[in-house]
Design a protein that fits this description.
Helix content is about 15%, strand content about 40%. The chain has one helix at about 55-75, and strands at about 15, 30, 35-40, 80-90, 100-110, 115-120, 125-135. The protein has about 140 residues and is mainly β. It has one domain: Roll (Thiol Ester Dehydrase, Chain A), CATH 3.10.129. It has a 7-stranded antiparallel beta sheet, covered by helices on one side. β6 (about 115-120) and β7 (about 125-135) form a beta hairpin.
Length: about 140
């Protein structure tokens, strides 16, 4: 079966977490596992900078989203998480037509602080490495 923006790789469904920030980047997809939320998209013009590469801001925002959602999956009764630090290492540019995946690994829980790291791939090849710390908010 051919992959298109409406037909992502097996296991991916329309992303369940919509927001005003990501609305212009739709369609976004996600795959939920026992300990992670993997976000995916097929790179298109709305994801790119003037040089035709996927914009680093988009990569940063979606990597942050995948890591935060993955940390939340590891906790019960979370009121949310807010990013304290986000560190990106861009390895190579991603291009229009490539399938991008934002994978996160929960590293540790420090009480009110969670740590995660991840990798962004373009057609299976690493294009960015990411790490973040999150403040865990209490449920109201």
């Amino acid at each position: 079966m051919t992959e298109t923006p409406a037909n992502p790789p097996e296991g991916f469904e329309p992303h369940f977490r919509k927001s005003p920030l990501t609305a212009p980047w739709e369609p976004l997809f996600s795959k939920v596992t026992d300990d992670a939320v993997i976000i995916g998209l097929r790179a298109a013009a709305q994801h790119c900078n003037a040089r035709g590469s996927v914009h680093g801001g988009l990569i940063s925002a979606l990597a942050d989203n995948a890591m935060g959602l993955s940390c939340a999956r590891r906790r019960d009764h979370v009121g949310g998480l807010v990013t304290i630090t986000l560190n990106m290492d861009f390895l190579q540019p991603a291009q229009i037509g490539q399938w991008l995946e934002f994978r996160a690994n929960y590293v540790r829980n420090g009480g009110k602080i969670d740590v995660a790291q991840g990798q962004v791939t373009a057609d299976g090849e690493p294009c960015a490495l990411v790490a973040a710390t999150f403040r865990v908010l209490s449920k109201r």
